[in-house]
Amino acid sequence: MWCIQEITKEYRTRMYRLLDLYKLPYDPLQPVVCMDEKSKQLLEDTRQPITAKPGSPEKYDHEYRRKGTCNVFMAVEPKGGKRFVEVTDTRTKADFAYFIEYLVSRFPKAAYIQLVLDNLNTHFESSLLETFGKLKTKKIMERIRFIYTPKHASWLNMAEIEINIMDRQCTGGRIESKGKLSRNVQQWAKKRNKDKATIEWKFTRQDADKKLSKHYVS
Prior knowledge:
7 helices, five-stranded mixed beta sheet
């Protein structure tokens, strides 16, 4: 939010839509889900870390070996206390399409999912069309609605909050393989889901007008 210079009418329209959406009571038939993704660099220690002891934290050597990168998809239902994560080798249109297919399958009783996401070039229905074709894409899109943040407004996507929590609690250190990364994030998500950890969004349309109106342009 700190880098905002001008907030156009289109920006405000999308922002208001999201802020109004976040105010709605929890509805399992039309769940609000926020999605984002993050690249994770895989790093292997060149020397064995020294295990933590009482009064002494774990110690790592500054040297490491690069082992490539992976992508972590994150979808979180803030008021339902659910999150779904998947680790992929890449972040292609097909990767996005298959994650959307998986996400829809996790809400079998919902009429449709209200999915908040950013404007990354893979985050569009065309990715599903290229991957699945018209018939399957039509069936998937009947169960989901894409709701986009304004451009350069990732702060309005609660998936970023969940990713930051994941980094602090699970993925912030060195992880040397895709397999280990996947196991770690799945275990982390399982515990968070068991605890029904939710996200409470407090920033309202009124807050936006009060704090950001000086940046509004026609």
